[in-house]
TrEMBL record:
Name of this chain's protein: Uncharacterized protein
PANTHER family, per the entry: MISEXPRESSION SUPPRESSOR OF RAS 6, UPF0489 PROTEIN C5ORF22
Family named by the database record: Belongs to the UPF0489 family.
Native source species: Ixodes scapularis
Pfam families hit by this protein: UPF0489
Superkingdom field: Eukaryota
Length: 429
């Protein structure tokens, strides 16, 4: 008798880790050497700051410290995952395509990785060597590249025939928003990109240069955090990013969207001359012309008056007091979190897809998964709508179409819906 593939649908992505650990505990997944195939607009490969490496196999501790951007690597640190294939959205560029082989372990009591890519240096996660560690293989590719590759290209380590694999899908892979760009003006986001920008040496540089660059980055982030806390109100909650009420409130307008970085790389079989209509949730907030106030005008009632601080930060704080985040209280934590997502070289992916684009990407997904010639031991799906990364009006449509495609590919599924919050009103047709 063929058992149906278990599928767990969660809302915030890090809740998927609970079901992976549960499957390991029930021996539905092996304790080690698990491959994760990770469809997502974001890598989710940050190490949580509160993670104690000595407790990396303490399930309760790990689940308590992880968040949406930091839930995968703790499972690698514990030795459960030894391969991660990040299938990135066509419009995502946080990590370069290709293969990386590195160690994940502890150094001076902190969880660290030995991969010197800017993504890890920017998060202050890198170290030249670890005291104790596990080897981790990371491959980054788009669907197009994977479909064009030969079946055994890259070696058997990336083929699931001889190992158990977890299929993980974030629905924002198919349609992606930047929730911070939805509540801050374009000029505010541009100032954040300038303030939080950091340059890093080539990954092949001398370790001393890498250590120096990472130390500067750590000091930069701490300084910006302290200055924002000094000049702006402190956070009253621990919520990350805009609230769902704010995100849903931005869905009342409908208009054309301009996606300068939207190139899906799949044949959409659609007339490119047609305007894609989406809700206002799918385009950045532009409130830069709401007021003619000169941001350097000292007649404005503003908390900024510190000659030692970068004038751009003072401009930003002044502007935020005049034009606070749309629908959100002005808090230093929200602004710092937004700044940590961007610099002059990169920013969070932002591409609200048409229904044709979504369906084309889902079709490509099943084509690739079919080539693996293996069923996953477990499927986790994250809606990511309450945090605004997948457009709330579209999430039910995407979820149903993805589940339909997986049923067609794998047969019967045992689907568990592990979320309570209702989605924003959407049309499934």
């Amino acid at each position: 008798m063929v058992r149906p593939v278990p599928v767990y649908v969660v809302e915030p992505h890090h809740h998927a880790l609970h079901h992976i650990y549960q499957a390991i505990g029930r021996k539905k997944l092996p304790f080690s050497k698990v491959l994760m195939v990770h469809f997502d607009a974001h890598p989710d490969l940050v190490l949580p700051p509160g993670l104690d490496p000595a407790r990396c196999r303490d399930r309760d501790h790990v689940l308590d410290v992880v968040d949406i951007e930091s839930w995968i690597l703790p499972a690698a640190l514990a030795g459960h995952l030894d391969r991660v294939l990040w299938v990135r959205s066509p419009w995502s560029d946080q990590l370069p395509d290709g293969d990386q082989q590195f160690l994940i372990g502890s150094r001076d009591g902190q969880a660290r990785v030995t991969c010197p890519l800017p993504y890890f240096l920017s998060e202050c996660m890198w170290t030249h060597q670890v005291d104790e560690g596990h080897e981790l293989g990371l491959r980054v590719q788009t669907l197009d590249a994977l479909l064009e590759a030969k079946p055994n290209d890259g070696g058997n380590a990336w083929q699931p025939e001889d190992r158990c694999f977890v299929l993980d899908i974030d629905l924002d892979f198919y349609s992606t928003q930047d929730p911070f760009a939805m509540v801050l003006s374009q000029s505010q986001m541009q100032l954040l990109r300038q303030l939080y920008h950091a340059s890093f040496p080539d990954p092949t540089a001398n370790p001393g240069l890498l250590e120096e660059a990472q130390a500067k980055r750590r000091a930069q982030l701490q300084h910006l955090k302290e200055q924002l806390q000094h000049h702006l109100p402190k956070a009253e909650s621990s919520n990350r990013g805009p609230s769902i009420d704010t995100l849903n409130g931005l869905c009342h307008e409908v208009g054309p969207i301009n996606n300068p970085q939207a190139t899906s790389g799949v044949d959409l079989q659609a007339d490119s001359s047609d305007s894609v209509k989406v809700c206002a949730l799918g385009k950045p907030v532009d409130r830069d012309t709401d007021s003619g106030v000169d941001l350097r005008d000292d007649t404005v009632n503003s908390p900024v008056a510190d000659a030692k601080v970068d004038p751009r930060l003072l401009d930003l704080c002044n502007d935020l007091t005049i034009r606070p985040p749309k629908g959100e209280p002005l808090e230093a934590k929200l602004i710092h979190d937004a700044g940590c997502t961007c610099d002059m070289d990169s920013q969070l992916p932002y591409h609200v897809s048409s229904r044709d684009e979504i369906l084309a990407l889902i079709k490509s997904t099943t084509r690739f998964l079919g080539r693996l010639n293996a069923k996953p031991a477990l499927i986790t799906i994250a809606r990511s709508s309450l945090d605004g990364y997948c457009p709330p009006p579209d999430v039910d449509f995407v979820q149903e179409r993805v589940l339909d495609a997986l049923r067609e590919l794998y047969g019967e599924l045992n689907v568990s819906l592990d979320y309570d919050e209702p989605s924003a009103p959407g049309n499934l047709e």
